[in-house]
Write a structure and sequence with these properties.
Blueprint lengths: L8 E4 L9 H8 L5 H9 L3 E3 L2 E2 L11 E4 L18 E4 L3 E6 L16 H8 L23 E7 L2 H12 L4 E9 L6 E5 L2 E3 L7 E3 L8 E10 L2 E8 L6 H8 L14 H6 L6 H8 L6 E9 L6 E5 L4 H10 L12
Parallel strand pairs: 7-14
Antiparallel strand pairs: 1-4, 2-3, 2-4, 5-6, 6-7, 8-13, 8-14, 9-12, 10-11, 12-13, 14-15
Length: 334
């Protein structure tokens, strides 16, 4: 039975979720609830789509209102925490922050405190509710160990507009990364569908049958012995997309053992005679991936906005260690 003292959870399906199954959407939106429990709730009629009962396998079109009858009391809604924020821009509609590596964006998967959501709630108690009760204001995400630009919506109208820009690809997101090896080309496009791995729910994988289309544009910024600095532009925004796509073409992100090499394995791929580079790799504590630039149209005025997040200290230190060995392509507009 539903808890009469709990409020229903109302979710707005982003346009980017077009074609996704209802049960898969709910699993992503409510990560603290098991897939089997969510399926039981849908089957029991505790979940409606635009006011009507639906099947777990029902396909979404984007823009629907999904209502979950009630969340169990075991799921605590995020509360404000006094955590410093690196704010790049703010007005009445949006907040753009430079997320540090190591910070989780929203509660879920056993993380219930210390997230970006907790920090933003302390700074700005009123946020959009379109993303659900556990992720107020969150329009898009960054992995825990990825740093850089992230935009937060302060109201539902801004959230809807920004979600539409994500869906129609008018929002631009550019990342910088160091990868292992040297690509044969100086630029390219990876068009490979991504889905959650069948036997490990913490991983994503290239799956032509069940995956959703994912496209990453990349180009070389600089080379160093055994390593390459690349710039990536997302055409779509799937979970772990850049990390999976770069690994897929044989050049995983430095410091990403989940999809690439451990620190020791990466060091073994450096040509002999470069102890400085090997030392830099040994000091690498996370994936060298930074959301460098974000560009979107203001949800109220339509004005084009662009922001860049300064490189964090560990990324700058890695750059500095490799700079004496770098060579660059003849043309680069980084």
């Amino acid at each position: 039975m539903a808890d009469p003292n709990s409020e229903p959870t109302v979710l707005t399906v982003p346009e980017s979720a077009e074609g996704q199954r209802l049960d898969a959407f709910l699993a992503e939106a409510l990560p603290d609830i098991s897939r089997s429990r969510l399926k039981d709730w849908v089957t029991a009629g505790r979940v409606t789509v635009n006011g009507h009962p639906a099947k777990p396998s029902g396909r979404l079109q984007g823009g629907e209102e999904v209502v979950v009858e009630s969340l169990p009391r075991a799921i605590a809604l995020p509360e404000a925490e006094d955590i410093p924020l690196d704010i790049l821009y703010e007005d009445d509609d949006v907040l753009v922050v430079n997320k540090p590596a190591g910070m989780v964006v929203h509660p879920g998967a056993g993380v219930h405190t210390g997230t970006l959501v907790h920090a933003v709630l302390h700074h700005c108690p009123s946020l959009s509710s379109a993303g659900g009760e556990t992720r107020p204001g969150i329009v898009h995400r960054l992995d825990r160990l990825t740093s850089g630009c992230l935009v937060v919506a302060k109201n539902d109208a801004a959230h809807l507009c920004l979600s539409e820009q994500l869906a129609d690809r008018s929002m631009s997101r550019v990342y910088l990364a160091w990868v292992v090896g040297r690509p044969d080309e100086t630029e390219g496009v990876v068009d490979a569908p991504i889905a959650r791995a069948l036997h490990d729910r913490t991983r994503m994988s290239i799956q032509n049958r069940h995956g959703r289309r994912a496209v990453t544009h990349w180009r070389v910024v600089a080379w160093a012995p055994g390593l390459t600095r690349v710039q990536c532009r997302l055409e779509t925004g799937r979970t772990h997309q850049i990390r999976i796509h770069l690994a897929h073409i044989g050049h995983p992100v430095v410091g990403d053992p989940q999809y690439g090499y451990s620190s020791r394995e990466a060091r073994l791929r450096i040509p002999p005679g470069h102890p400085t580079i090997i030392q830099a790799l040994s000091h690498c504590q996370r994936q060298m991936l930074h959301a460098f630039r974000i560009r979107f149209n203001h949800p109220r005025t339509g004005e084009p906005l662009e922001f860049e997040a300064p490189l964090p200290e560990d990324f700058r230190a890695f750059d500095a260690a490799l700079r004496p060995f770098m060579e660059k392509p003849q043309r680069t507009d980084e």
